[in-house]
Design a protein that fits this description.
The complex is a heterotrimer of chains A (about 280), B (about 230) and C (about 300). By secondary structure, chain B is an alpha/beta fold. Chain B has one domain: 3-Layer(aba) Sandwich (Rossmann fold). Chain C is of the alpha/beta class and about 300 residues long. Chain C is globular, with a radius of gyration of 20 Å. The chains are: A mainly alpha (about 280), B alpha/beta (about 230), C alpha/beta (about 300). Chains in contact: A-B, A-C, B-C. The complex binds adenosine-5'-triphosphate, iron/sulfur cluster (SF4) and magnesium ion.
């Protein structure tokens, strides 16, 4: 619990700032990898060399069963992971924001209906449903992002709602109402800017959740085989004999990448959340 | 011209769980009064007696449990859209806590500009109107770029007051409007309010716990005690 | 013995329109056990002084000068060392109660939390203590108050909660920024009495920022008057109210209800480009030749400190 008497206190920020710095650096590295994959990667990920090559100067992480360069696959894979993560999170956050804002601002019946829907979505067993969908539809990469987005907005909606409830009771919102501003104006210029701080960390956490979900699906062989994500790489490594033959350079790096990327995103989310809490007392 | 009035009729307000009547606690009971344009009704009451709640109900931003508010003879519940918009423009409230009455994410300038836009002042005239208003409430131009937390309590209150005055309302509900001000600025604002009233015939409902302020400003005085309103002479 | 020396404190804020000089070379001592009232026009920098003492200023602030507490310079302590001082040695009652309370915790929990964390009291004990403290703050039903959330209270009630919070750990110095704002006369009196009682009991000193001249007259030992970032007069409270030296003080006393709220003519000065010479000269009825181009320095005169050319 925050010490109430000293709302502007910053606490021992040093240790935390180090880990959030690490998170930012990691995130940036991956982001740049994804953005400039075509420049950074040594080869085209679909170009064929000799299969099953061990790491060498030419192929730092060797090649896979089809002779694709694993390092290049890995670098291009960051694109896929990031796209799924961001795509799904943008969708989820947009839905969650709208639902939460409207529920919190209009209250009453609107609130009850919207929160009822949220509860229904909350009860859906997400992972099994996604697996089922993926198994039957053999979906493309975009559909996966879409479905994840449609299933992961509930917690954002709840947080946004409770904060909007709080903010919409504040005098400046009442003032705006009284001055005759439209509901739209109030929701978007009065309430939204005052809750955005809590949405950003939620967004990051959704990115992480989406990435993990995509990786798990792909690992289970339910992903989009035309898009080589990290999960898909591990899946291939498992099914095409990488594991049995202990070709560690094939399945360990994508695993590490998933781990570090998710770690950086989550950490970033938390440190943003913390920062928001520290600021809460002032503005 | 017919006289425009703001009337409260049998206003009651209960807090607590609405469904079980046992848990309900009435903060306001059967409150009625009427204010004409150009006059000041002073409402006095102790801390926590529901003065602010009453103010919000009269301003139409909180619902009463029972009772109605009439603006120019019509219940505000039954106003047409156009009439409601007029009511909304003509009845304003200034809150007690000035820090909370401005959006922390908007600069003073933006707060003002949006009101100017709302009331349809043409863009090229806005600067002028804005500067006029700043002068009226006694703020200098260099406040425009600041955020509410970069202003003192009193400066915040002046901004809030200025925004409301821009709408040229017929009635203003003043909820402890000077509680954040020092005595010289308080004196300034009180005189300013009186001046505006004389010029524009505004009706005030002045809520305060300070007897001196009320007796200086008000034409009629009512005391709010234990949820009921009693007029004194 | 004086427990707080403020020496040449200057606080500026960077804004888009220029630098705001909120506190300009302010020096004064706050004796232990005394009640010092700080009065002055809205926006003159009173709250900023209060916040500087505990270094609770926003990022765009620059501080210089010294604030000596014992042998420590508060401005040069680390966040960690300050955390030990805040609340326990020096506590502050903020001007805006609703923002200073955490909206998601019950009133009582916020108070008893302090005892649990700082005094290592058991939760039962801290609850009992919190309840009794609420009782002393004029809540008729402290048990009931314990379970309320800040949003369920009126401003005046939250204000009292805030006072309870600040007093909870018996600090040596209590800084109170308009503690009775928004309270009616009777409650104001009660709260101030309680504040003074606790202050006497614990031998703390009180630094009271207020607009309420009656309160200042009744409870303060000394009064400091501020105008546009500077302290212009410090005097014993009876002297100040009976015969203020500074023309601004005289103007202020005329704005009291007893004089029908006669305001001081002219507008409050800009803190970005304050008037040259004496800051008060554009509004001063007794202005001299020098006033418009030379700044008066604070001098000692018959037991007061005064910044005005009339008393050279
Ligand atoms: N963060 C900030 N950035 C810029 N200017 C600021 C900031 N905080 C305060 N100020 C300015 O500093 C000056 C002093 O503010 P302060 O809050 O100390 O006034 P005050 O004397 O307490 O007034 P009041 O009696 O109204 O509370 C004001 O002019 C204010 O606008
Ligand atoms: S120095 Fe001059 S202008 Fe300033 S207060 Fe004194 S007499 Fe007035
Ligand atoms: Mg202040």
């Amino acid at each position: 619990m925050k010490k109430p008497a000293l709302p502007r206190q910053n606490g021992s920020a040093q240790k935390k700032s180090l880990s959030s710095l690490l998170a930012v650096v990691l995130f940036l590295v991956f982001f740049i990898l994804a953005l400039c994959a075509n420049i950074i990667a040594p080869h085209d990920p679909w170009e064929r060399f000799d299969p099953y090559l061990p790491p060498s100067v030419e192929h730092w992480l060797g090649t896979n069963d089809l002779g694709h360069d694993i390092l290049s696959e890995l670098i291009y894979g960051s694109r896929v992971s990031l796209l799924v993560g961001l795509g799904a999170a943008v969708l989820a956050t947009a839905i969650g924001l709208c639902v939460g804002l409207f529920a919190g601002y209009y209250k009453g019946v609107t609130d009850e209906i919207l929160m009822g829907i949220t509860d229904v979505f909350l009860m859906i067993p997400r992972i099994p449903l996604i697996i089922l969908l993926a198994a039957f539809l053999k979906p493309s990469f975009w559909i996966i992002a879409l479905v994840i987005g449609f299933l992961w907005w509930t917690s954002t909606a709840r947080v946004v709602r409770s904060k909007s409830l709080q903010v919409s009771e504040m005098n400046f919102v009442l003032s705006s109402k009284c001055l005759g501003f439209s509901d739209k104006h109030i929701i978007f210029t009065d309430i939204f800017p005052n809750i955005i701080q809590i949405v950003i960390p939620k967004f990051m956490l959704t990115v992480a959740a989406a990435m993990i979900t995509e990786a798990s699906l792909s690992f289970l062989g339910l992903g989009d085989p035309s898009m080589k994500s990290w999960g898909m790489m591990i899946n291939f490594a498992f099914t095409k004999g990488g594991l049995i033959n202990a070709l560690w350079w094939w399945f360990i790096p994508p695993g590490l990448c998933i781990m570090f990327f998710v770690y950086s995103v989550v950490l970033l989310g938390y440190s943003l959340e913390e920062k928001e809490q520290a600021v809460l007392g002032i503005s | 011209m017919f006289s425009l009035s703001l009337k409260a009729e049998n206003i009651s307000k209960a807090y607590g769980n609405g469904r079980s009547s046992k848990k309900r606690r009435y903060v306001l009971e059967d409150i009625s009064f009427e204010v004409q344009k150009g006059e000041t009704l002073g409402i006095m009451g102790e801390s926590g007696t529901g003065k602010t709640t009453l103010g919000k109900i009269v301003a139409g931003i909180e619902k009463a449990t029972r009772g109605e508010i009439f603006f120019a003879g019509n219940s505000i519940e039954e106003l047409s859209k156009i009439d409601y918009a007029r009511f909304r423009k003509k009845v304003q409230i200034v809150f007690q806590n000035p820090e909370g009455s401005l959006n922390p994410k908007k600069t003073v300038e933006k707060s003002f500009q949006q009101v100017l836009e709302l009331i349809g002042i043409p863009t090229e005239k806005r600067g002028e109107v804005l500067l006029d208003m700043l002068q009226t409430v006694g703020l200098s131009e260099d406040f425009l770029c600041r955020y509410p937390h970069q202003l003192s309590g009193g400066q915040n209150q002046k901004v809030a007051l200025g925004r409301v005055l821009l709408l040229e309302p017929d009635f203003i509900i003043l909820d402890e409007p000077t509680s954040a001000l020092d005595i010289s600025v308080q004196a300034q604002i009180l005189h300013l309010l009186k001046e505006w009233q004389a010029q524009k015939e505004i009706g005030y409902i002045l809520i305060s716990h300070e007897r001196e302020i009320i007796s200086f400003m008000a034409d009629r005085i009512a005391v709010l005690k234990e949820g009921r309103l009693a007029f004194t002479s | 013995m004086s427990c707080l020396h403020i020496k040449h404190l200057t606080v500026t804020f960077e804004t888009l329109m220029g630098t705001v000089v909120a506190v300009d070379d302010v020096s004064f001592d706050h004796e232990s056990k005394e009640t010092l009232a700080l009065v002055g026009e809205t926006g003159c920098g009173k709250s900023v002084i209060a916040s500087s003492i505990l270094k609770l200023l926003p990022d765009n602030a620059n501080l210089s000068g010294e604030i000596l507490y014992g042998d420590k310079d508060l401005l040069r302590l680390s966040e960690r060392e300050l955390a030990d001082i805040r609340g326990q040695e020096i506590s502050i009652i903020f001007q805006n109660p609703t923002l200073a309370l955490n909206p998601v915790y019950r009133i009582g929990d916020q108070i008893s939390e302090l005892f649990r964390v700082h005094k290592r009291a058991s939760s039962k004990k801290s609850k009992a203590y919190a309840t009794s403290l609420l009782g002393r703050m004029g809540f008729k039903d402290p048990e009931h108050a314990f379970h309320m959330y800040p949003s369920q209270f009126s401003e005046g009630m939250n204000q009292r909660v805030l006072i309870a919070l600040a007093l909870a750990l018996h600090p040596k110095i209590i800084i109170a920024d308009e503690p009775t704002k928004g309270l009616d006369d009777q409650l104001k009196e009660e709260i101030l009495k309680e504040l003074m009682k606790i202050k006497e009991e614990k031998e703390s000193s009180l630094f009271l920022i207020t607009h309420d001249f009656d309160a200042a007259r009744n409870i303060a030992d000394r009064v400091a008057l501020m105008y546009c970032g500077q302290i212009v007069e410090i005097a014993l409270s009876p002297d100040f109210f009976d015969e203020p030296f500074h023309p601004y003080a005289r103007g202020l006393l005329k704005s009291l209800p007893s004089h029908d709220f006669a305001p001081i003519p002219g507008a409050s000065p800009s803190m970005i480009s304050p008037p040259e010479g004496c800051r008060f000269h554009p509004r001063c009825a007794e202005r001299l030749e020098v006033c418009s181009h030379e700044m008066p320095e604070p001098i000692k005169k018959s037991g007061r400190i005064i910044r005005c050319f009339l008393y050279r």
